[in-house]
Specification:
333 residues, TIM Barrel, seven-stranded parallel sheet, binds iron/sulfur cluster
Length: 333
């Protein structure tokens, strides 16, 4: 199987008529200029030079709300990427957009240019959270857009956030279940980060918003990841991609951690292990997980082993390789 590579082309805030409280696309993507067709062409060429031949390559327009851009600008950017498909260097395109910027005409246009995957920023399936976050769309918009995208034969990826204004652990879990019921081929989970120069940052400074801490995000997302794993839906990203600018101060607080995904998966193993051991009346000596997941299940500085030993009064608990699926855990002794 050829190696898969994604060439990201960031389209910051271009054409976006909304002001979601958490968003400052320029700071999040690290890009300060709008993306022109020429800029996209150069960015793709530069990446292709680095990747070389033999990989299956996808060009991804990330960042703003792609399908909210005037159609002629969409076509200019899509046309650039489609040229690389015609030349045999790129196999397909993907892009991210808002649920209320999807209709039949838009999807026809995307199909013509070779878009294969559409990512929708659903963020929450609770209308009060969407409203407080200034999203300007409803959960129903997400359901309708998701159905239309799948009906037209695109691959659908849904993005959700945790810890937005008005969100709670229960609402975030509800959102995960609703999203799972739409049967996307993958999900991205973005716990809220406090980015400077956003409305949310100002709300937090004035005491009107309580920060979604790393620990809170890890706790909530451990349950959420389990919902998607149980539904067979891959979590393809957990947490904002770390960038220099975010790490050096643009992320003023919130759930920003370069290894957030690992922390969450490790906590998810802890929760599953607790449930398994409880089901056996609290006794266990050895737990089995898929080989590549052992260190994740053990946790940083053996934190999961220590937590389980303490909770159940166990000694010498071991985690070993077993013939189980990724994410699963079994008590072998
Ligand atoms: S719709 Fe997207 S680009 Fe526009 S403000 Fe919201 S998150 Fe940012």
């Amino acid at each position: 199987m050829p190696k898969k590579s994604i060439i990201p082309v960031f389209v910051p805030h271009l054409g976006c008529a909304h002001d979601c409280v958490f968003c400052n696309q320029r700071r999040i993507s690290g890009q300060t200029e709008p993306m022109s067709a020429r800029g996209a062409d150069e960015a793709i060429r530069r990446s292709l030079d680095k990747i070389g031949y033999g990989a299956e390559i996808e060009v991804a327009f990330y960042g703003g709300s792609f399908t909210a851009i005037p159609p002629e600008e969409q076509e200019a950017l899509l046309g650039v990427a489609a040229n690389f498909i015609s030349a045999g260097r790129v196999s397909s395109l993907r892009l991210s957009t808002r649920p209320d910027c999807i209709d039949a005409d838009t999807l026809d246009r995307l199909k013509r240019y070779g878009v294969g995957t559409i990512e929708l920023g659903s963020q929450s399936m609770c209308d009060d959270v969407l409203k407080k976050s200034g999203r300007g769309h409803t959960a129903e918009d997400t359901k309708k857009a998701a159905a239309l995208i799948k009906e037209r034969g695109f691959s659908l990826v849904l993005q959700m956030m945790t810890g937005l204004p008005g969100d709670t652990r229960e609402k975030a879990l509800f959102t995960a279940r609703e999203i799972a019921s739409l049967e996307p081929s993958g999900v991205r989970i973005y716990p809220t980060v406090l980015v400077r120069d956003t409305a949310l940052y100002e709300l937090w400074k004035s005491g009107k918003y309580k920060e979604h801490t790393v620990e809170e995000a890890v706790e909530w997302c451990a349950d959420i990841v389990t919902v998607f794993e149980d539904a067979g839906i891959p979590v393809i990203r957990l947490g904002l991609n770390p960038t220099e600018a975010l790490s050096e101060g643009d992320a003023a607080g919130g759930a920003y951690h370069p290894a957030l995904g690992e922390l969450v998966r490790s906590r998810s193993y802890l929760r599953r292990a607790e449930a398994e051991i409880e089901a056996r009346g609290g006794s266990a000596r050895t737990l089995g997980v898929e080989r590549s997941q052992i260190s994740m299940a053990v946790g940083q500085k053996k934190c999961n082993i220590l937590a389980l030993e303490k909770k159940f009064g166990l000694r010498g608990l071991k985690i070993i390789a077993a013939d189980v699926k990724r994410g699963e855990i079994e008590v072998t002794e």
